[in-house]
TrEMBL record:
Family note: Belongs to the universal ribosomal protein uL10 family.
Lineage, highest ranks first: Bacteria, Pseudomonadati, Bacteroidota, Bacteroidia, Bacteroidales
Gene designation per UniProt: rplJ
Pfam family of the protein (one): Ribosomal_L10
Protein name: Large ribosomal subunit protein uL10
Function description: Forms part of the ribosomal stalk, playing a central role in the interaction of the ribosome with GTP-bound translation factors.
Highest taxon listed in the record's lineage: Bacteria
UniProt xrefs under SUPFAM superfamilies: Ribosomal protein L10-like
Keywords recorded for this protein, A-Z: Ribonucleoprotein, Ribosomal protein
Length: 176
């Protein structure tokens, strides 16, 4: 690969890392071209951008990021690597799990490592934890749902109190 081409690839990877808050490093070694295309289509449907990378170029792109120290991920950059970039924290994990369940005989893709919600997840055993991570929007919805119950109770009490006061005032008005 020419030096200019490498530089362009590193710049593109750097731009992806800067623009996507989450990315997964995966091993797609056992996948042929047809299965890789199938995985890529599944990723596109899930809002995940999948890019096959050279490990040295990915390491260089990660090292150029000043805001985060990605040194924990360097050990995972061995063998065939595909990077899955996503806005939603658990979308790549769900795509990997769905693809693996449909293609059990392949046993791939494997999770090597992930950078999700400013945290590092190293190893294939972290896949289930990543599938269960909630997105920011899901967490906000959960908080709103938790707060909605007590708020409804307070509003009900206020409505009941207003009805009671209204009843007392009506009774007093009838006595006079």
């Amino acid at each position: 690969m020419k030096k200019e081409t490498k530089s362009t690839v590193i710049e593109q990877l750097h731009a992806y890392i800067e623009s996507y808050p989450n990315f997964y490093l995966t091993n797609i070694e056992a996948l042929n071209a047809e299965k890789t295309s199938e995985l890529r289509r599944l990723c596109n449907k899930s809002g995940v951008k999948m890019v096959v990378v050279k490990n040295t170029l990915m390491r260089r792109a990660l090292s150029e990021i000043d805001s985060v120290d990605f040194a924990e991920l360097y050990e995972s950059l061995k063998g065939n690597t595909a990077v899955m970039f996503s806005e939603v924290a658990n979308a790549p994990a769900k795509a990997i799990k769905a693809f693996r369940s449909d293609n059990k005989e392949l046993g791939r893709p494997d999770l090597k490592a992930a950078y999700v919600q400013e945290g590092f997840y190293i190893g294939a055993d972290q896949l289930e934890a990543l599938v269960n991570i909630k997105s920011r929007e899901e967490l906000i919805a959960d908080i709103v749902a938790m707060l909605e119950g007590p708020i409804q109770g307070v509003l009900g009490q206020l409505d009941s109190a207003a009805g009671t006061i209204h009843g007392v005032l009506d009774t007093l008005a009838e006595r006079q």
